[in-house]
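Possible race condition, two jobs.
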Amino acid sequence: MARLSTILRLKRLNSLLGIYKRSPSCLQSIQTNYREYHHDHDRARENWWEISKNQRFLLLTAGAIGGTILTLSNDFGNASVEAAEKYDPDIEKHHKTVRTDLPTYRMEDVAAHNNEKTGIWVTYGIGVYDITEFVPKHPGSDKVMLGAGSAIDPFWHVFQQHNTPEVLTLLETFRIGNLNPEDQVSTRDMGDPWSGEPRRHPILKPAAQKPFNAEPPPSILIDSFITPNEFFYVRNHLPVPEIDEKTYELEIEIEGVKKVTKMTLKDLKKLPKHSVTAVVMCGGNRRSDMDNVKKVKGLYWGPSAVGNAVWTGVKLCDVLAKMGVKSDEEKHVHFEGLDTDPTSTYYAASIPLAKAMDPRGDVLLAYEMNGQPLSRDHGFPVRAIVPGTVGARNVKWLGKILISDKESDSHWQQKDYKGFSPSTDWDTVDFSKSPAIQHMPVTSAICYPSPGDKVKVEDGFITVKGYAWSGGGCRIVRVDLTCDGGETWHVAELEQEDLAKAPPGRAWSWTLWSAKIPVPKKAREVEIWSKAVDSNYNVQPESFKNTWNLRGVLSNAYSRVKVKLAK
């Protein structure tokens, strides 16, 4: 019965995928059928290698549409990986291994097979693969055809969802030969956009390697009001570009005006120099706390995807004013980075022009961080710093600025970094119905002690330390702590340094705080809670239950840390 159900479900998916090419409106049906097929994980594991190669391909394709592209649940992905590893645990080595039972081809032979008439060949590692049958069935066939007759290594190195045992096993079934050794060097050189990645401090804990995303231990953050460059969290979406400052140019364009202004780094440094002390916080900071309540899709960030630095550069409003740009509530400023994927799509985002043109908004084209030239991980040679705004809009490796009537149409502006109702799931989400995140909400995090620590009780008190911050230039006015479930609250001492002289609405820095709070006499362990209050009297919500969202952004409920007590 299970076998019959499997085949019927596969036939239904096959029909839907055919319709999808002509009409993407059947997307929800694909999702439903895909998820129903994989609802029973045990059945999925048992049947994976019983079905045919084409059927396995069909499932992976449906998974790509229903899971990868729309970022659905990865539960079956784990099940199929497990099955594939059971089938061939050494599959990742195959594309690096010469198959003596197959012929050897030159790269020119591969290049001659770049369309449906000649057949579609590609190389991956030292393997040559005929994917002619694969392409028509793949929903992203236009992207697949970009690699026709050449190496797909650059694409798969960036789109890491392909590097799974089940996909590699499937690819190996299409193998027809080996690549000539003389051509392998050029393929290898062009194949790994990550080969030029900068070195990072080992204290950074990676949430992902490719692209590199990492945060420092929380205890490091409270050691200094200004976060050292080497310990500042790293959030990359694509490979870090290698840029020569001697040839670097920043393009600035006004939509509808033919003239494009180009500025070198030297040109920027001739303009009045300004410094702003400001926090940059990832929209997914503290996502792990929300994920612990209910699973979300995104990098498993702790509380340290944030840092406070002194940024130096030129005010964007000065640059735009010289070009004759005037503030307009309806217009937007697009920032386009020089980091790109294999389809030449750049990372991009936008902010309201009114924010950029407001001298009190302190938006910078920054070229220094804490008195040093920007490092490659942090945007060398020039990045946007948009104080009070989510990190996703602080675009690094700035290559182009565009003044437009519309928001950026990039994926990161339109299909990510947005908040939704807790009842919204991947079957019902409509990204067009939610505005892109700009200002971040008020938040705090306990950085010391760490969860599970044994904390010394001194005269009935324990020491607690952390940070607090609110977006939009709001100042932190109070941080409250409790270790008895909210029966009693204790106010922390605030360290605000630059904020003491910051005018209202321009408090861009964070607040470090510390407190000595009493603990119950006979308690052996306690759970410490912190909540911050900003100058608009916005307060952190008590729990994540009613603020949960499917992307795990805006994660700002009470910070909670359980510790043991040593008396």
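Job #2 (started ~2 s after job #1):
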Amino acid sequence: MAESGTAGPGTAGQGALLAAPAPAEREVTGTGVTLPVARVLLDTPVPHLDRPFDYLVPPELDVAAGVGTRVTVRFGGQEMHGWVWERATTTTHPGRLTALRRVVSDLPVLPEEARRLVDAVAVRAAGTRSDVIRLAVPARHATTERSERDKPAPETPSWTVPETGPQGWGAYEGGTALLAALAEGGAPRAAWSALPERKGLVRGWVPLVAEAAAATLAAGRGVLVVVATTEQAEAVAAALSAELEGEPVVALAAEHGPARRYRSFLRLLLGHARVAVGTRAAAFAPVPDLGLMVLWDDGDDRLDERHAPYVHSRTVLALRSGLEGAGLLLAGYSRSVEAQSYVEAGWAGELRAPRALVRRALPRVEVPGEIELEVEGPSGRARIPSLAHRALREALADGPVLVQVPRGGYAPVVACARCRTPARCPACSGPLSMDREGRVTCRWCGRLVGAFTCATCGNRALRMLSVGSARTAEELGRAFPGVPVVVSGARESHGVIDEVDDSPRLVVATPGAEPTALGGYRAALLLDGAAMSARPELGAVSEAMRRWSNAVVLVQPGARVILLGGPEPTAAQALIRWDQPGLARRELAERAELHLPPAWRTARLDGPRRAVEALLAEAAGAGLEVLGPVEAPATRGQAPRTGEVRALVRAPVSRGRELAALLRVRARERSARREEAVRIELDPTVLW
């Protein structure tokens, strides 16, 4: 072992070794093994240990300890897991090498493509490779591994390039060329503005992905589809299995549990399946000879990894596209600013339907202005004005109507009744909410707040600042007596409803929890537009557009969709025109002026003041932009952190690698010196 079995994770002074010249290599001979040195990457998140350590391969483990296998080694006086990153004949360690202890499994779960992707993601995110591997490789399940390895590879059908018609990829400009490129083994990349399925007009996105998958399979290559939730993954996998009859399709999701997840992983690794559908970690799935990747609704924040190295599935797939020469479709009813940045840079093309087809496939979106609302008299200033009530009444005569509400619950935001200061939890500083019975609880930690006292004015009374889905359903039930009202949302006792029939009813749902309606909704109200689009947060406008768009496509073509509540004007106009790419283009230009991601690479630093200030000083010395530090905000579910600060470091895209490299090296040095750690997140969705 290169550190002679004496150093451990907390050894001081190794930071100086990071910049030291590498010792001379020497041949390792006389072992009876062709490649006697195993370079092992330790399974530890400690930054300064994120490098291979040399171990001796004993003859009895020569065959089993292949590159990409998991092994156990002796390190710093303790037994640790690791990965064989490379086999070699030389070492830079001057002393005797320690031998590998054992091979956990001789199955190479980290093939060459996976190791290159792990390296690229760690470099991009200024993280450690072990953190990336934790996402890429599920935990081993020995019983499942034994059963899967004994199974013969199933026979898969041979595929020909499907003929697409005017309702298939031919409905999109460039769609036919996309299929041709995939069939020829090419790697087309595009941002796809999909349309909802309309019988006799255009096919839905899943059948079109099946067509693209068939073209990819015809070229002998594999397919990967990534979606936001486990329910979506299972539904899409089932639909692709039906469309690609005879072709094995596996679903990958952390919620499936260790055995099922590892079984799906092994089926791909062993070449027993070529098509995979999964959630965000499936972006690393070992699909054999990958030819096409599809990321659906890439603006969904559930595709953003919450743990180190805090990488988005979009970033992983983009890196993988370049490394493996695979095609990539960033698809959705809306367009994220990040996807638009790929288009603007010329790295990806666009797939859009002609305007005439868009008008025929979608409902009519209305945003009442001040004049229309003034005509309604006093009711025009109400949350649901009389013109919306009339639209609902007319549509209910024919079938169900959708009402989208930004927040769930009864009164999700409450404030002091006197000074209007938002009420916060005394334990964790989280926002307080009120239920139908008047009970006040914290939305972060769930504590029941018995007696509220305003920290600003000392008042004890509360008032509602916003209305949730439960209160909205209660109000609509009184306004439309005799009409069934259904509430769908994660905070409801019955949870999210998947679908409703075509009988007249009011369906009140939070964004993402809208059930589908048989035949489509006859109308829709999008309430509290300002609550989603005018928030002082990065990406609020594009996120509002994404949520509105996903609701609009559930409504029948030609029906009415009314957007209320003072939405951000630019976003409202883009929704009326159904021009999500135009809004993303405008947002990207504004972010370029403000030096914000994705136009600029940005790193958010959280940690003790002295540690953060030291990093800021070095970044400023390198000519990078620094902002802060400021006091760190409270984290969801945790008490305010005393003594911790937050800061930003920004760099042009051309210097993005330099920014990531600087932060990664400094994290290693601080770790080696056992100094206070700084949490580093590159290109975060939340800046402050």
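Residues 656-672 form the longest helix (17 residues).
Logs attached separately.
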